[in-house]
Amino acid sequence: MNDEIQFDSFAPSSPHATQKIVLQALDSSLPEDRFIMLRAGRKWRKTSLMISWLFERAMETGLTCPYIAPNRIQAKNIVWDDHIVRMTNELTRAGIPFKTNESELSVEMPRGKVQLFGVENKESLRGISNWGAVCGDEYDDWAEDIWKEIIRPNLITYKAPAIMGGTPKGFHNLWKLEQGKIFKPFHYTSFDNPDRDPEELAS
């Protein structure tokens, strides 16, 4: 990130301890840290980390950085009225101009763009070459071939990194990614978020 731009992608809060571990891996630029598999319990703030990281990557690379959910409605409900508002508030505070487009679920900045997608029409994601990073959420609810046949080829041009994450649902897609040894795995529970009341989580 340009030091002249005082943009805090986690505003108005800060990353907690286990989020920082994942962010350190993403910042390492080591080949083995390019692809991250993140299995985390509800309210660990997985999606928050993804969106914050995508905005950083978009402004660093000047490319499109997509967030991809199992379907477009889910992407809108999870991200648009919550995390995107959080990010645009911070862009405004930092004096960075931007343009939102709710019909295509995107935020475009002078350098870079973040856009929300769903995989229900997976063919519409095929053959894209301008991605600077990608985050796939709730990956256990995707068709298994989407990462290998569609998402991964889109990352070739810029050797873009990726996070594939979700709440674990048994031995499904996330588990299979880990067995393939290409993704660096991170496993956390809801209790690893210190900002949540453990009694409330336990109930």
Describe the structure.
The chain has helices at 17-27, 46-61, 72-94, 145-154, 173-179, 198-202, and strands spanning 35-40, 64-69, 99-101, 106-108, 113-118, 134-136, 162-166, 184-188. The protein has 203 residues and is an alpha/beta fold. Helix 2 packs across helix 3 (72-94). The protein starts with 16 loop residues before the first helix and ends with a helix.
Throw out a few tags for this protein.
35% helix, alpha/beta, 18% strand, 6 helices, 8 strands, single chain, eight-stranded mixed β-sheet, 203 residues
Strand content: 15-25%
Q: Can you summarize the main beta sheet?
A: 8 strands, mixed
Average pLDDT confidence is 90
N- to C-terminal distance: 41 Å
**Class derived from helix and strand content:** alpha/beta
Which term fits the overall shape?
globular
Q: Helix share of residues? A: 25-40%
Instruction: Spell the H/E element sequence.
Output: HEHEHEEEEHEHEH
Q: Largest beta sheet: what is the strand line-up?
A: 3-4-5-2-6-7-1-8
Number of strands: 8
Which segments are poorly predicted (pLDDT under 50) over 5 or more consecutive residues?
none
Could you give the topology of this structure?
Layout: H1 17-27, E1 35-40, H2 46-61, E2 64-69, H3 72-94, E3 99-101, E4 106-108, E5 113-118, E6 134-136, H4 145-154, E7 162-166, H5 173-179, E8 184-188, H6 198-202
